[in-house]
Amino acid sequence: MTTPDKTRLAEDVGSLEIFGTPFSTFTRSITMGLEEMGLGGHYIQHPFTPHSAEVKKRNPLGLLPVLIHRPDAIYTSAENAVVLFESNAVRRYLDDFVYPTVSRHGKNQHALTPPLPGHGTTQDGVLLAQAAEARARVDQWVSMASSTLFQNVEFGVVKPRLAMEKNGADDATVYTALEGNIDKMHAVLSKLEDLAKRDPTPFLCGSEITWADLFLYPALADLRATPQGDVIRGSDARFPWIAAWSDRMDARPSAKSTYEGTLASQRKK
């Protein structure tokens, strides 16, 4: 029996659908964000793969994820349904339109992007400058995770390794073939380690989780599921800050609830 939603959150938010397999790192960033916003159980995930017919109907590029938001649920007309693709666009929409509704219900008082200050205080200029910098730093990490990190981790090491494993290659053969890519990935991880540990905070942009953490985590979780992930896994990891941060991320309810169907979950079966 379903417990009634006494907060009327579902009615106020409308219906949210995410098109994307849990295997997709960017899809997982978005679903983790929904979970962190307090919307676990308030969205539907359709586990379609990239370039599938269902995805191409909504994103001509065929890439994941795709968000469909019907603000009035089943009463939303086709022309009023919001269809967005590109994970950065999706996160911005969730921040600007969906999260404010959630926060009014007291589900989660922490925004995944630091908000701009309200007007009417004598410190408007100072507060605005601080908030603008904080928001830009989140965007900076998201950009690095979406470009440099993703390219070097997923396309440089994880996906080629999976393809070689599928063809029967052993670890020694994989390492020899990917040695150059692994070295490049280590160079990137070293730079990220240095950036991340500058501030003694548990997350990338302070004491609270942000989109920065949610965009960085899925690709590194994939890496930790492979032998090449030992550099960010365990007490003797080559990159100890990233390893400890990854452990903290693994322990979050949002990571656990989006774990099934990921590379890590499939490799453990």
UniProtKB/TrEMBL annotation:
<dbReference type="GO" id="GO:0016740">
    <property type="term" value="F:transferase activity"/>
</dbReference>
<comment type="similarity">
    <text>Belongs to the GST superfamily.</text>
</comment>
<dbReference type="InterPro" id="IPR004045">
    <property type="entry name" value="Glutathione_S-Trfase_N"/>
</dbReference>
<keyword id="KW-0808">Transferase</keyword>
<feature type="domain" description="GST C-terminal">
    <location>
        <begin position="131"/>
        <end position="269"/>
    </location>
</feature>
<dbReference type="Pfam" id="PF13409">
    <property type="entry name" value="GST_N_2"/>
</dbReference>
<dbReference type="InterPro" id="IPR010987">
    <property type="entry name" value="Glutathione-S-Trfase_C-like"/>
</dbReference>
<dbReference type="Pfam" id="PF13410">
    <property type="entry name" value="GST_C_2"/>
</dbReference>
<dbReference type="InterPro" id="IPR040079">
    <property type="entry name" value="Glutathione_S-Trfase"/>
</dbReference>
<feature type="domain" description="GST N-terminal">
    <location>
        <begin position="14"/>
        <end position="102"/>
    </location>
</feature>
<dbReference type="InterPro" id="IPR036249">
    <property type="entry name" value="Thioredoxin-like_sf"/>
</dbReference>
<dbReference type="InterPro" id="IPR036282">
    <property type="entry name" value="Glutathione-S-Trfase_C_sf"/>
</dbReference>
<protein>
    <submittedName>
        <fullName>Glutathione S-transferase</fullName>
    </submittedName>
</protein>
